[in-house]
Amino acid sequence: MILLVAAAGGGSAWYWWQSQQGQLPEGLVSGNGRIESDQVDIAAKSAGRVREVLVQEGDLVSAGQVLAHIDTTELQAERAKYAADLAAEEASMLEAKATVAQRQAELTLKESNLRRALTVIRTGAVSEQERDEAQSERDSAKAILDAAEKSVTASDRSIDAAQALIDQIDAQIADTALSTPVKGRVLYRLANPGEVVSAGGKILTIVNLAEIYMEIYLPLEQAMRLPIGSQARIQFDGADFAIPAKVSFVSPEAQFTPKQVETRSERDKLVFRVKLRIPPSLLDRHIEMIKTGARGVGYVRLDPNPPEWPDFLQKRLEDDPLDAED
């Protein structure tokens, strides 16, 4: 994307600039390039029907803004089923707890009967058989209570499982609201309401306005001297102002100059890709004018103590501060 502004007298400035190309001060180099940006695809996580798309191509969008919705009819029905299952499991839990209380009371009675039998067996009022029966009834009541308590634990696990299914559906429903993670502009609208998309199907493509840069290509003898963070300037074809930038990337590997470079002699050269990033403060200031694909020339400083920028690279876009180098 690029800052395109119709500048008065831009044509004459362009021809003047061409006459200056062989007169760059020592330590300044240049390369042809065009404005690029990162793109973000807004896609459906799961297959579904597009319910609505809230933006059009060219719209400016903010980070976190919801741009489209996928239909949730089936998911809502599935959630209702899981909610009913959860209610049934909770009812089973209440029943299981009531059973535990009942079995606890029965065990308490059987233990009391056993204690009485053990107390009076010495007097002969209770036979050993009656004592054994009381012991057996107490043990049986305890086993039944243990089983009832395990049923409560199982019901608790079933409730957790039912709730997990509801949470999973809620997450899927939340994913049907498609939002953008970046501030940008809608580049492509790839689906319309009523269309069915597969999992991962693209709905929109957003140009990330926080990552605007120009890529130029320099030969080894220049690229090896170029530090990351070095100051740069970008001048668009036909413009009489320069945009400040910084070197944010220098490729560690050489490549042939890409085919979009116009002359065959340049394309045959091995070069290193250099990325010139435009400061976010300038992008925010001129957000409405940012376009991608604009062509121009990027200039960079190679030396630790660089020369001053030539006059034709010191003129800024109107209202831009001179220190906008962040």
From TrEMBL:
Recorded coiled-coil stretches: none
SUPFAM superfamilies found in the cross-reference section: HlyD-like secretion proteins
Domain Multidrug resistance protein MdtA-like barrel-sandwich hybrid: 39-206
Ranges where the record places region Disordered: 305-326
Record Pfam families: BSH_RND
Signal peptide (from-to): none
Protein name per the record: HlyD family efflux transporter periplasmic adaptor subunit
Organism: Neorhizobium phenanthreniclasticum
